[in-house]
Design brief:
This protein is mainly alpha-helical. The protein has 16 helices and six strands. The chain has a three-stranded antiparallel β-sheet with strand order 1-2-3, sandwiched between helices. The chain has a three-stranded antiparallel β-sheet with strand order 5-4-6. Helix 4 packs across helix 11, helix 5 packs across helix 10 and helix 13 packs parallel to helix 15.
């Protein structure tokens, strides 16, 4: 029908027409017809992993209050692992290998002994030597003071008082207290009482110091931590008692020496105690606190564990709820990365749920849970998390259906450009595409709102849009189909006309022959 020279021209024209549709197809690839961008989905950023902590570290943190510092020391008892929590330098809680606090008092006492034995005793030989030297110095000064006091009260040495121009023996005045007898304005009664009670306290305390130092010296190499700590505490307490007695004695002593005019006091004014030695002895009490004492340790651990149990329980509960919220928020990040780039929308239901859950968690933190706030949080979390899991599972089908709609939109657009909007096939395809898009928008809105949607819903949309694309692919023009008929008719008409002409010519020839 066409000449050989004309066929290449026709082929080039068809090729140019096909290529002309490509820019339009590329431009149409940016939307799905619903106004939603279908560009590349942003990949979910990989979160930086947080350093994991041991179960014991986590459990210990629940027992702390603001600003407290902790230390954990591991030890073994009868082949099993245990962990001592030390809060601000004091042993406070014992955890077993499963990070559970040990609360049984007998078990705590047993473990405290094992733990204490594993520690280094800070009380060394040099500490003992210093303590022995100080005790000896104190005893020496106390012995001299006692002798002076005895001489004064017993009249063993010369001691005279001058009263109203008369000379009196000190011990006579001391025991008789001439003030009231001679109607003086002053009396030795109060001074005498202070001197005697002070000496009594000094005497008993000095004996406790000597006994304690002797015992500590004798058993230093064999003493356990309990005995060492107990002896040091006893010595330190005796030193403080001695100082208090000495202060009482000094008060009475000073009053005594200033009340009357002494011609001679029998050496009483030279009764001076080695106070620096008292300070060293008193420091034994402080050192006792640094020596591990399982008995005292047990009492502290039982009290601390009991007192903080409610604090720890609440902290653990809050931590557990916070972990659930963090897991949900991680899912929310993933969901947004798959949903928002496709839809151009924020998942308002899940955003609002996140805000609500945060508020509920704060209520648990600040309240006493009498309103079952933790239970309310768990119930809300279960509801929201179920919706999130369901929605996450739908993202692949959702994205695929969106891509299929986008492809169908491109194909329909090509058909409009090729065949025009009056072609009934194009009109039908446009209506079908709008119906598919409407179904997609409704399901997308459900997904945004966290309402139940199924995978089959999006698969059906994808199937319908794919089928629509298939129907339009390779569709020919109606005009081209009519051209063949027209051409066929024209050929037939030419044949008929040609036959008629031939017939007429034959008739004329016959007539001419006649």
């Amino acid at each position: 029908m066409f000449s050989k020279d004309f066929k290449p021209v026709i082929f080039a024209a068809v090729l140019l027409f096909a290529l002309a549709g490509l820019p339009f197809a590329h431009a149409a690839n940016n939307t799905n017809g619903t106004g939603n961008s279908t560009g590349n989905v942003t990949a979910t950023p990989t979160p930086t992993p947080t350093p994991s902590i041991s179960p014991v570290e986590e459990a210990a943190a629940y027992y702390l209050e603001g600003g407290e510092k902790k230390e954990i020391k591991d030890f073994t008892h009868q082949g099993a692992s245990y962990h001592m929590l030390i809060v601000d330098g004091s042993e406070s809680v014992i955890f077993d290998a499963s990070a559970n606090p040990v609360t049984d008092e007998a078990k705590v006492k047993e473990l405290a002994q094992t733990y204490a034995d594993s520690l280094t005793n800070p009380f060394k030989q040099e500490n003992l030597d210093s303590l022995k030297s100080s005790a000896a110095d104190l005893n020496k000064s106390y012995t001299y003071c006692t002798q002076a006091y005895t001489n004064f009260t017993k009249g063993i040495r010369n001691c005279f008082l001058v009263i109203a121009g008369h000379v009196w023996l000190c011990n006579f005045v001391y025991y008789q207290d001439l003030g009231p007898i001679l109607n003086f304005n002053y009396s030795l009664g109060g001074s005498k009482k202070s001197v005697e009670s002070g000496f009594a306290a000094m005497n008993s305390s000095m004996q406790d110091i000597k006994d304690g130092v002797t015992a500590l010296d004798a058993g230093f190499q064999t003493f356990g931590l309990i005995d060492t700590s107990a002896q040091l505490e006893k010595i330190g307490r005796a030193g403080s008692n001695f100082r208090a007695g000495y202060q009482t004695f000094l008060s009475g002593h000073n009053n005594l020496l200033t009340t009357y005019e002494f011609a001679s006091d029998g050496g009483l004014n030279r009764c001076a105690i080695a106070t620096s030695a008292i300070s060293t002895i008193e420091s034994s009490g402080a050192m006792a606190a640094s020596v591990p004492n399982p008995s005292a340790m047990t009492a502290k651990i039982i009290e601390f564990t009991s007192t903080r149990s409610s604090v720890a329980a609440k902290a653990k509960r809050v931590s557990g709820l916070a972990s659930k919220l963090a897991a949900f928020e991680a899912k929310l990040v993933t969901f947004k990365a798959g949903f928002t780039p496709v839809s151009g929308l924020d998942p308002t239901y899940f955003n609002n749920a996140d805000t609500t859950l945060k508020s509920m968690l704060e209520k648990v933190k600040t309240g006493n849970d009498t309103d079952n706030s933790a239970k309310a949080f768990d119930e809300k979390m279960a509801e929201v998390d179920a919706a999130m899991n369901r929605s996450l599972a739908l993202l692949p089908a959702y994205a695929s259906s969106d891509t299929s709609i986008n492809n169908a939109t491109i194909v329909v657009g090509d058909a409009v450009r090729k065949f025009g909007t009056t072609d009934p096939r194009v009109t039908s395809a446009q209506m079908e595409l709008q119906s598919i898009k409407k179904s997609f928008e409704l399901k997308e809105a459900d997904l945004k709102a966290g309402r139940p949607v199924t995978k089959a819903d999006f698969e059906a949309i994808q199937s319908n849009s794919t089928a629509l694309s298939g129907k339009l692919t390779g569709l020919g023009r109606i005009e081209n189909e009519l051209d063949f008929v027209t051409i066929g008719g024209a050929i037939l008409l030419l044949i008929v006309l040609g036959g008629g002409i031939w017939f007429l010519r034959r008739m004329r020839q016959r007539q001419s022959g006649l």
